Amino acid sequence: MTTSHTLDVPGARLHYEVRGSGPLLLVTGAPMSAAAFAPLADALASDHTVVTHDPRGIAGSPVDDPGQDSTPELRAEDAVALLDALGAERADVFGSSGGAVTGLALVARHPGRVRTLVAHEPPVLDLLPDAAERHAATEDIIATFHKEGVGAAWTKFMIVSGVAGTSEEPPPPSGEPSAQDLADSARFFAHELRATTRYVPDIAALTSAPGRVVVGVGADSGPLLTHRTSTALARLLGTPPVEFPGGHGGFMERTEDFARLLREVLAREAAGEPAAS
């Protein structure tokens, strides 16, 4: 059974969902909403209490100031507020893409609240030797959004991220995007993309935290920019990345296999064993 809730946090009201029973697992994305993670949450709910949510400003989580940027630090504080609302001192966290960056900020700011963070393909561009060039490309995407709109920005985003021309390239849309889709995309390009990709992980804080940080990469993500950032982060943390099924969205493409490996990784980390790469 899935239950839906709302939580007032500074500057926003968060929509979140709870399903299953067992150890608490917070699943987070940015800009992906709770709906995108529902199949993964269902697959894990047999032995975990899985919490998903709409990040601030996305889908069912409205913000007081639409002009405020959604930073990893703000989203990390939202995650802490969710844990507090659930009465949880600590939780495992799975973060995908921008949600993985949220998880890195969460561990750095509140190290005692996370047992294990699985950070799947965080786009932390400053870890790359060509960071300046990558930031310039991101600024060009944002400028394209302001000049030409959501569609043109997504096209450029897919090219810059490496998705265009790979097996992850999405099929042509079957219909017009909904008003919510357009609003979420506008929020992403105008108020989230820059702050997320410019986040610089605090390696000292991550390696000294009482919890564990595992970096995940997709088995099919080799051509993607996030594969480069993830392997760079894992190298700095001194641990090999764990290869998950599928690509950047492997939790949607191969949900059962992805959930099985995620469950294994969390169990190994809880037992103090290194996760297999």
Strand order of the largest sheet: 1-2-4-3-5-6-7-8
Helical percentage: 40-55%
CATH topology: Rossmann fold
- The CATH homologous superfamily name equals Alpha/Beta hydrolase fold, catalytic domain
The biggest beta sheet reads: 8 strands, mixed
Gross morphology: globular
CATH architectural grouping: 3-Layer(aba) Sandwich
By DSSP (H or I, 4+ residues per run), the number of helices equals: 11
What do you see in this structure?
With 277 residues, the chain is of the alpha/beta class. It has a single domain, classed as 3-Layer(aba) Sandwich (Rossmann fold), CATH 3.40.50.1820. It has helices at 38-44, 72-85, 98-109, 131-148, 150-161, 179-191, 193-197, 203-208, 225-237, 250-253, 255-270, and strands spanning 2-9, 12-20, 24-30, 49-53, 91-97, 114-120, 212-218, 242-244. Strand 3, helix 1 and strand 4 form a beta-alpha-beta unit.
